[in-house]
Design a protein that fits this description.
The protein is α+β, with helices and mostly antiparallel strands. The protein has two domains: 75 residues, Ubiquitin-like (UB roll) (Roll); 68 residues, DNA polymerase, domain 1 (Orthogonal Bundle). The protein contains six helices and five strands; from the N terminus they run E-E-H-E-E-E-H-H-H-H-H. A five-stranded mixed sheet has the order 2-1-5-3-4, sandwiched between helices. The radius of gyration is 17 Å and the shape is globular. It binds FE2/S2 (inorganic) cluster (2 copies). One FE2/S2 (inorganic) cluster binds next to loops.
């Protein structure tokens, strides 16, 4: 058993200790907001917060982070209203969205550590791959998120999704057993 705290809930994974954290989060915890693309630590899609650091979760095994506190995109903000989420929405950053959870987690760690990150700091912290070309909007959105976090700026609130993220994570159709057809 490998013990971790994931989104403030204690978890014991009955998986091989060599299992990548990203796989455990998605396949065992059903936290599919963490995306997997390259599986080798290059692209950043799988970034989560581990003990306050932005970490590419495909590149660490669960054994190597045993005892850690992990926060995924589902656990970042109860109403999905973290300053980074507000700024990304306001700036229409997302296109296909695949890279967005990893970017949001990296940006959340950055603005917690640096009150007013400059462009170089943002580009360093967010060297993720995005095939949709959102980079031109990204720097401005992260600066705006930092301003929201400092209280220097507000954006119009977006409607609450009105669904608990924990329930949303469980309601993955692909993981729901198909209903049996009545025998004819
Ligand atoms: S899937 Fe982890 S860095 Fe690409
Ligand atoms: S928004 Fe599509 S990969 Fe980044």
């Amino acid at each position: 058993m490998t013990r971790l705290t994931v989104n403030n809930a204690p978890i014991q994974y009955a998986l091989s200790p060599d299992t990548p954290l990203a796989v455990a989060l998605r396949d065992a915890s059903n936290l599919t907001g963490t995306k997997i693309a390259c599986s080798n630590g290059e692209c950043g899609a799988c970034t989560v917060d581990i003990d306050g650091r932005a970490v590419r979760s495909c590149a660490v095994t669960i054994a190597s982070v045993e005892g850690s506190f992990v926060t995924t995109i589902e656990g970042l903000a109860r109403d999905r209203d973290h300053p980074v989420q507000q700024a990304f929405l306001a700036a229409n950053v997302s296109q296909c969205g695949y890279c967005i959870p990893g970017l949001v987690m990296a940006a959340a760690v950055l603005i917690r550590e640096v009150r007013d990150p400059d462009e170089a700091a943002i580009r360093r912290a967010m060297s993720h791959h995005c095939r949709c070309g959102i980079q031109p909007r990204l720097v401005e959105a992260v600066r705006r998120a930092a301003a929201i976090e400092r209280g220097d700026e507000t954006v119009s609130p977006v409607a609450s999704p009105d669904i608990d993220a924990r329930d949303a994570a469980k309601a993955v159709p692909a993981l729901t057993a198909p209903k049996r057809r009545p025998q004819s």
